[in-house]
Each structure stands twice: as structure tokens, then as C-alpha cells.
Specification:
single chain, 338 residues, alpha/beta, Spore Coat Polysaccharide Biosynthesis Protein SpsA, Chain A, 2 domains, nine-stranded mixed beta sheet, 13 helices, 9 strands, 47% helix, 17% strand, globular
């Protein structure tokens, strides 16, 4: 059995795919690289086939009709044979030395019968034009070098939640959660980490900078104007987070607090984007989003609505919009997101 299956969702990714795959190949026979060609119309499919032919037993090329990022992830998960599962987007890459450290640690955990539900490592914002790259580390919240439960988890800073770039799930655990990602929908990476977190019992943190998250292309889905154009897809993901996880029912206090905080940040992103657009239609969508949360999770709604962010997002008129936009732009400078 392979230690780690790595799904590489790829749509018209010929420009970037080789770099991603070449860094993953440093894992050798311990990795299974699943290049999922999501109905590409460029040479992505041919490139995937070439890698599979050159590296049999390590690289597999999977061709499918276009279904979007989430559908490509699910295709990779269904095909995976490795003990653990990770997603690496086709325009991102991994640090080769860090990957070897991750694989050595996964092997040790398995040999000692200490396999965990979720393995966490750091990721790097590899932003275009920025010399000093921002690294997201978790050593303030997760102790290093031992198997953790939620009793051992500390406080996460704002902007430092466990995103897809940081997460490696045990494959069978991920399948057992019943995760299903919607087709033709952007921003499903939030569902990918959030929904299974509901069932996580054990974690392990390795303080290495594994994942390089390439950010800053003008056509990238996380660019502000792109997200505003696709706001209905962001809202769909946000509402699925409401629907799929009843955070009030989680019995462990620290797990519940973490999940509520994650829900708060995603709802804040949705709300800020709607305020940024400034149209009456989108401002009405913001109110509808919060009303949906109130109906589904009244306890969570009350907590978020009474908090500083919740209050700011509901300030009326031009002054309210000024406060939200000012806070948003300050946060951009502090945290470096788009």
C-alpha cells in the first residue's frame, strides 16, 4: 500500500502542471500521484498521460468530463489506494524536503499503529511579486511530535485555520465521513476541510513548510473581483456549511469553538464581498445569508451577530459600508490575502 495518494485536479493546467508533478515525484514509491484531467481542452490530458507512461506505478492519469474542482477531488478520492490522501492543485507545488519528512512521519505513525484522522503541516502564500513569503504555521495551537485529541488543541489565530493546503486526511476516514463536494462550484475547498472536521478525533502536526500556494494571477478564482462575480457560488458553499454540520450539536467544547470560528470567517468573507460590490441586490443577499443562519443555527447566529465582526457587518448606510471596507483593506495588509 502507498503511504500517500495525492490528487492533482487539473483543468487547462498545461502551463503549470509539470512543476507541480515534478515536486510530487520526489516522494518516490511512497506516493501515488493521481492527475485528474477535468475535461481540459488544452494539452493537460496528454501531459498527464506522458507522466503516467514515464512513471508507471507512481503516476496515474484519470480523464473525465468537466465537473469542476470538487468533482475532480472526489474522483481522486474514489481512485486513491494510499493510506492517506492529499489534494495539490495543479498550479501549486510542494517542498521536496518537507514532503520526505511528511512521508517519514506517516510511515512511523503507521508502523507504531498510531494512524491519525488528520495530519497537518504548514503552507506558504507564494504570492506573485512578494519577496518575503508568508508562512501559515500552527505551532501556537497544535503541539508538535505527538498524536493529539481536541483536549490538546489550543487557540487558533484569526486567519490561521486549517485549510486544504495544510490538511492530509487518512483516506478511509475521509471516505467514512460521507463527504460529497458539489459539481461546477468554486470554493469547495472550504467544504473539504470543514465537513470532515466534524468527525476528526485524532490529529498530528508536523512543523514543516510543505505546501506552496501560488496566488496572484489575474484570472485566479480567489481574486477579489472574480469572487464578487462568482458570489453565488461562494454563498452556495457557505450555506452548505450551515446545512451539513450542526455545530451546536458537537459535544467537545474546543472542537465546537473551532468550527464556529471557521464558520464565522467564511460567513464574514461572503458578507464583505457582498458589501464590497455595493449593489442593492447583493446587500439583500447578505441579509438573506444571515437570516438563513439564524433559522438553522440560532445559537451560532447569536454568537456571531453579537461579536465585533457581526456588529460591523450590520452597520447601516454609507458609514457601515465604509467601516467594513476599511477593516477589510487593513486585514488584507496584515494577512496578505487577495
Amino acid at each position: 500500500m502507498k503511504l500517500l495518494s495525492i490528487a492533482v485536479p487539473s483543468y487547462n493546467a498545461a502551463q503549470y502542471l509539470s512543476h507541480a508533478v515534478e515536486t510530487l515525484l520526489s516522494g518516490g514509491d511512497d506516493v501515488e500521484i493521481l492527475i485528474v484531467d477535468d475535461g481540459s481542452t488544452d494539452t493537460t490530458g496528454a501531459l498527464a498521460d506522458a507522466f503516467a507512461q514515464e512513471h508507471p506505478g507512481i503516476v496515474r492519469a484519470i480523464h473525465k468530463e468537466n465537473g469542476g474542482h470538487g468533482d475532480a477531488v472526489m474522483t481522486g478520492l474514489r481512485a486513491a489506494t494510499g493510506l492517506y490522501f492529499k489534494v495539490v492543485d495543479s498550479d501549486d507545488w510542494v517542498d521536496e524536503q518537507a514532503l520526505r519528512q511528511v512521508l517519514d512521519t506517516l510511515r512511523t505513525l503507521h508502523e507504531q499503529a498510531r494512524d491519525v484522522d488528520l495530519f497537518v503541516s504548514n503552507y506558504v502564500y507564494d504570492k506573485v511579486g512578494v519577496r518575503h513569503k508568508r508562512v501559515i504555521r500552527y505551532d501556537h495551537a497544535l503541539a508538535e511530535g505527538r498524536v493529539l485529541t481536541w483536549d490538546d488543541v489550543g487557540h487558533f489565530f484569526v486567519g490561521q485555520y486549517i485549510l486544504m493546503h495544510a490538511a492530509i486526511y487518512r483516506t478511509q476516514f475521509l471516505r467514512d465521513t460521507g463527504l460529497e463536494l458539489p459539481k461546477h462550484t468554486f470554493y469547495v475547498d472550504n467544504l473539504y476541510v470543514y465537513v470532515p472536521m466534524r468527525d476528526v478525533k485524532t490529529l498530528y502536526y508536523l512543523n514543516v513548510d510543505l505546501y506552496h500556494y501560488f496566488i496572484g494571477r489575474t484570472d485566479q478564482s480567489v481574486q477579489e473581483q472574480t469572487m464578487i462575480r462568482r458570489i453565488d457560488q461562494q454563498l452556495r458553499v457557505n450555506r452548505l456549511m450551515f446545512d451539513l454540520v450542526d455545530v451546536s450539536a458537537l459535544t467537545h467544547k474546543r472542537q465546537r469553538e473551532y468550527m464556529v470560528s471557521y464558520l464565522e470567517i467564511i460567513t464574514t468573507v461572503s458578507s464583505v464581498l457582498l458589501v464590497c460590490s455595493g449593489t442593492p441586490e447583493n446587500l439583500a443577499k447578505k441579509d438573506a445569508l444571515w437570516n438563513d443562519m439564524k433559522a438553522l443555527h440560532p445559537d451560532v447566529y447569536r454568537k456571531l451577530r453579537r461579536g465585533l465582526i457581526g456588529r460591523a457587518l450590520h452597520l447601516p448606510g454609507r458609514f457601515g459600508r465604509f467601516v467594513v471596507l476599511t477593516g477589510y483593506h487593513i486585514s488584507q495588509r496584515l494577512f496578505g490575502f487577495n
